[in-house]
């Protein structure tokens, strides 16, 4: 069992003044799996994810992508390494339209003189592609691709953010509470989207408070507690109430009973 | 996932149908924020023409465009900055600084306290003035980006600093027209179309408006300006280097101020360190009346152009109607407040 993790963090430490976000956290994401990260508020889930997405840089510890050590200085660095993140606070620009948001930070320019000298954006192409992506992802409730994002509902904005990650993530997609603001139907669609991504071989990290959702899609469940990894279990090995017990520290799982290695054979 | 997704669409359409006429107007204005200033401008022109038929005479129209040229070109810089949710109070001071730099380099006998300059090639003088303005803009940008200082405070400081530097470096001396080489005044030349005189500087201003309207709409840099002004945190997480965008905006604004300085010399025919102390506020007024939001992220160049002309038309029209200067100030003040109230209302739109 020596599968190289797609994404690995080892001994990550991150403090904010006197607040300790991460206190020597480890995490491994293996090819083709959905890894759920659960934990109480303040357990350091979002902090860890922000390290991988380049929004924070860890004080100590190392991060690896496919076994290579990486050091992200900006979100742009993480994106060029193939890691796409949907943040809890949606990183969309409200005044820009859907297609502009989808391509924000990696706009497509026109071919030839217009693009290279006049730097003209190929809006038509971006709109067509954006519409295609949204349709492929089954997000069809958006009527107009040139609609400003601020005119969309919370769920639709979330869909735009998820679509952006799904469109551009080449190695890993990280979703931080993607269903927190969504209704039942929209949540179901996002979960289906996560399964679809896994079926295409894309590893996904899902941070969620919603245990039924975690148990529905996760291959392994990483339980974070007080800035560290408390245990990694699977939906088969442990029940929901046991996972909650691990989160609160009421239950500890011996390493031998954990699912620290890959449980899913990559396609 | 077998559940039908069609009802959602129907529901959405039903909501569209349910909107009141006022909501429709609101959402159109949200999409095209320059419509309301345009209506105001047309309305003002019609009213002032009815009051005094001289308003539409070619001579008066030429005068209007020349009155608008400096405020208009500086307002381009102000628009870029306000779109990033910033503000620039130093715009006039930097423009005057650049203007005095150009003139003092170009004149034959030096007027400077400190620099042993004068007698430079006119083209070089203009270039040096523009470079000075770009550097001044870069100073603003550097302080704002590097130390995270609010633009209001930084530019309030540089307003005083560049104002003082102008007086210290160049004595408090106005350089009169005859001393200034023709190239510096070149933009004051006019093309006569019948009895309408089109100043070169006006053409340059319109070209700059067109260029920056294009840049804002059609380039990644332009779209990033909106994204940064709208929500800097989201822009950063989306992979935009917000600091670089902000810094470059202040530098480009400096460039526009430098060009405006050249236009100013052409317009006035001389260079004075005490030129137009209120022009900062005029540019902000033009931008706001033109429908650009002071909170950043929304606005257009065409709106600013319209806003500039609203100020000038109201001023000129009220003068032709025989009203006192105070009424012009009153009218512009009311317009500004209306424009901001309008902006607040439009921002509440739901499509």
Helix-strand blueprint:
The complex is a heterodimer of chains A (267) and B (351).
Chain A: E1 7-16, E2 19-29, E3 34-39, H1 45-52, E4 60-65, E5 68-70, H2 75-80, E6 83-86, H3 98-102, H4 112-116, H5 123-136, H6 154-168, E7 172-176, H7 184-199, E8 204-207, H8 211-217, E9 220-225, E10 228-233, H9 240-248
Parallel strand pairs in A: 3-8, 3-9, 6-7, 7-8
Antiparallel strand pairs in A: 1-2, 1-4, 4-5, 9-10
Chain B: H1 6-17, H2 21-31, H3 35-51, H4 58-83, H5 91-106, H6 122-146, H7 151-170, H8 182-185, E1 190-193, E2 196-199, H9 200-218, H10 220-230, H11 232-237, H12 242-268, H13 279-289, H14 301-320, H15 325-347
Antiparallel strand pairs in B: 1-2
Helix pairs in contact in B: 3-14, 4-9, 4-12, 4-13, 4-14, 5-6, 5-7, 5-12, 6-7, 6-12, 9-10, 9-12, 10-12, 13-14, 14-15
Report on the structure:
The complex is a heterodimer of chains A (267) and B (351). Chain A is of the alpha/beta class. Chain A has a domain of 165 residues: P-loop containing nucleotide triphosphate hydrolases (Rossmann fold). Helix content of chain A is 32%, strand content 23%. Chain A is built from nine helices and ten strands. In chain A, the strands form two sheets. Chain A has a six-stranded mixed β-sheet, sandwiched between helices. A four-stranded antiparallel β-sheet of chain A has the order 2-1-4-5, with helices on one face. In chain A, strand 1 and strand 2 form a beta hairpin. The radius of gyration of chain A is 19 Å and the shape is globular. The two termini of chain A are 16 Å apart. Chain B has a single domain, classed as ABC transporter involved in vitamin B12 uptake, BtuC (Orthogonal Bundle). Chain B is 71% helix and 2% strand. Chain B is built from 15 helices and two strands. In chain B, a hairpin with a 2-residue loop joins strand 1 and strand 2. In chain B, helix 3 runs parallel beside helix 14, helix 4 runs parallel beside helix 9 and helix 4 packs antiparallel against helix 12. At the A-B interface, helix 2 and helix 7 of A face helix 1, helix 2, helix 9, helix 10 and helix 11 of B.
């Amino acid at each position: 069992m020596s599968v190289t993790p797609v994404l690995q963090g080892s001994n990550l430490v991150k403090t904010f003044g006197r607040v300790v976000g991460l206190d020597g956290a480890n995490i491994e994401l293996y090819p083709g799996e959905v890894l759920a990260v659960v934990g109480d508020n303040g357990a350091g889930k979002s902090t860890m994810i922000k390290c991988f997405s380049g929004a924070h840089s860890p004080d100590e510890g190392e991060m690896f992508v496919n076994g290579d050590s990486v050091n992200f200085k900006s979100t742009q660095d993480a994106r060029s390494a193939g890691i796409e993140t949907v943040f809890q606070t949606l990183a969309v620009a409200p005044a820009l339209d859907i297609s502009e948001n989808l391509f924000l930070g990696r706009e497509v320019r026109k071919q030839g003189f217009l693009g290279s000298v006049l730097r003209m954006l190929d809006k038509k192409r971006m709109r067509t592609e954006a519409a295609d992506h949204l349709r492929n992802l089954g997000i069809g409730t958006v009527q107009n691709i040139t609609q400003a994002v601020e005119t969309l509902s919370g769920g639709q904005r979330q869909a735009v953010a998820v679509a952006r990650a799904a469109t551009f993530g080449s190695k890993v997609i990280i979703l931080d509470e993607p269903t927190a603001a969504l209704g039942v139907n929209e949540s179901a669609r996002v979960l289906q989207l996560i399964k679809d991504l896994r079926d295409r071989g894309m590893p996904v990290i899902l941070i969620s408070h919603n245990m039924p959702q975690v148990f529905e899609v996760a291959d392994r469940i990483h339980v974070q507690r007080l800035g560290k990894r408390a245990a990694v279990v699977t939906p088969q090995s442990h029940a929901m109430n046991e996972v909650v017990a691990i989160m609160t520290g009421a239950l500890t799982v011996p390493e031998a009973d954990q699912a620290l290695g890959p449980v899913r054979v990559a396609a | 996932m077998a559940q039908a997704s069609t009802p959602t669409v129907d529901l959405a359409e039903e909501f569209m149908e349910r909107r009141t006429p006022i909501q429709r107007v609101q959402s159109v204005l949200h999409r095209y924020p320059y419509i309301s200033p345009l209506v105001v401008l047309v309305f003002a022109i019609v009213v002032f023409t009815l009051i005094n038929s001289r308003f539409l005479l070619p001579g008066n129209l030429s005068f209007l465009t020349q009155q608008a040229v400096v405020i208009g070109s500086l307002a381009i810089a102000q628009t870029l900055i306000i779109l990033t949710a910033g503000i620039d109070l130093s715009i006039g001071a930097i423009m005057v600084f650049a203007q005095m730099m150009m003139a003092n380099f170009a004149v034959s006998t030096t007027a400077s306290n400190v620099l042993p300059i004068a007698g430079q090639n006119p083209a070089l003088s203009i270039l040096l003035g523009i470079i000075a303005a770009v550097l001044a803009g870069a100073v603003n940008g550097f302080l704002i980006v590097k130390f995270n200082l609010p633009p209001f405070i930084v530019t309030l400081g540089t307003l005083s600093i560049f104002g003082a530097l102008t007086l210290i470096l160049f004595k408090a001396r106005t350089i009169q027209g005859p001393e200034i080489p023709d190239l510096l005044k070149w933009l004051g030349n006019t093309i006569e179309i019948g009895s309408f005189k089109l100043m070169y500087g006006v053409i340059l201003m319109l070209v700059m408006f067109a260029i920056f309207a294009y840049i804002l709409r059609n380039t990644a840099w332009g779209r990033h300006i909106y994204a940064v002004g709208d929500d800097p945190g989201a822009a950063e997480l989306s992979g935009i280097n917000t600091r670089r965008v902000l810094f470059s905006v202040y530098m480009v604004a400096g460039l526009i101020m430098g060009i405006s300085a050249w236009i100013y010399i052409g317009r006035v025919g001389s260079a004075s360190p005490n030129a137009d102390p209120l022009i900062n506020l005029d540019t902000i007024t033009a931008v706001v009346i033109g429908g650009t939001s002071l909170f950043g992220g929304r606005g257009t160049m065409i709106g600013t152009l319209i806003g500039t002309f609203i100020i000038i038309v109201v001023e000129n029209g009220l003068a032709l109607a025989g009203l006192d200067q105070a009424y012009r100030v009153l009218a512009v003040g009311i317009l500004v407040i209306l424009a901001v109230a309008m902006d607040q209302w439009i921002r509440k739109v739901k499509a």
